[in-house]
Amino acid sequence: MSDPCDSCSQSVEDALARDVRLQVDRSTVDNQRLCPTCFADWITRYKEEMSPKAADSGSTDSEIIVD
């Protein structure tokens, strides 16, 4: 079975596809089917956006709750 990548729309086989599911409080916020290249791009973007910034070193994340 071959479905398109949700990012680039190219056909991707099941064996190569990566499914990304984002859930908040057990409710699905986002669900994407990605080819290997788009998945790698997604991981890079996730790391960049979720990592602490050097400029924010004076702030504390005491309000973040990890479940």
Could you characterize the architecture of this molecule?
By secondary structure, this protein is an alpha+beta fold. It has one domain (2-48). It has one helix and four strands, in the order E-E-E-E-H. It has one helix spanning 36-50, and strands at residues 2-4, 11-13, 18-24, 27-34. The strands form two sheets. The chain has a two-stranded antiparallel sheet with strand order 1-2. The longest helix has 15 residues, at 36-50. The protein is flat, with a radius of gyration of 16 Å.
> What is the count of DSSP helices, taking H or I runs of 4+ residues?
1
Q: Write down how many β-strands occur, each being a DSSP E stretch of 2 or more residues.
A: 4
* Element-level helix/strand string: EEEEH
What kind of sheet is the major sheet? 2 strands, antiparallel
Proportion of residues in β-strands: 25-35%
Structural class: alpha+beta
Number of domains as seen in the coordinates = 1
Shape label: flat
What Rg is obtained from the alpha carbons, in whole angstroms? 16 Å
The main sheet orders its strands as: 1-2
Unreliable stretches covering 5 or more consecutive residues: none
Residue share in helix:
10-25%
**Separation of the first and last Cα atoms:** 36 Å
Mean pLDDT: 82
